[in-house]
Amino acid sequence: MPHSTTDARKAPFRRKSARLASPLLLLVTIATPAVVPAHAAPIEVAPAYGNKALAVAASKEGAPYARGASGPERFDCSGLTLYAFRQAGKKLPRTAEQQYEHTRPVPSVQRAAGDLVFFPKGSTVGHVGIYAGNDKLWHAPRPGASVRLERIWTGNVRYGRAT
């Protein structure tokens, strides 16, 4: 799915492959009259597995950061998301960059608890966490820290939904 021009200006990283909607979905979208007023944004609800992954991540509060660790006692950032989604029945790749490539982009106005939050680092993705709502995320921040709930500290993030 291509990024909007707004997203392209804000993000130094891009998805490597575009995903196209099925022809049937496009036909239904084009042929169906809009029932949502133009001023209303659609309400997004995270899939059940996103909520379960969020609960799993929260249950790991205080687990120490360890580079390359994917649980169940120690985690790095992508190891926490990998572990949480695996427990929720969804398979994610290992690294933050690979997870970014594997998810469906979600505009920030449609983000929902259980979506993944990606942080850029140059032309790639350097960090990932799980959106908890109210501009907060669960993540394994860095060496010397532990899994915690924290306010998102920058506007330069992207959201993705596991598929």
For the largest beta sheet, what order do the strands appear in spatially?
Answer: 1-6-2-3-4-5
Helical coverage, percent range: 25-40%
Unreliable stretches, pLDDT < 50, 5 or more residues?
1-11, 18-43
**SSE order, one letter for each helix or strand:** HHHHHEEEEEE
Got a strand count?
6
Inertia-based shape: globular
What integer value in Å does the Rg equal? 16 Å
Q: How much beta, percentage-wise? A: 15-25%
SS field, number of helical segments: 5
Overall structural class, as computed from helix and strand content, comes to alpha+beta
Note the gap between the termini: 13 Å
State mean pLDDT (0 to 100 scale).
82
Give an account of the 3D structure.
- The chain is 28% helix and 20% strand.
- The chain is of the alpha+beta class.
- It has a six-stranded antiparallel beta sheet with strand order 1-6-2-3-4-5.
- A hairpin with a 2-residue loop joins strand 3 and strand 4.
From the structure above, extract its key features.
163 residues, alpha+beta, six-stranded antiparallel sheet, 5 helices, globular, disordered N terminus
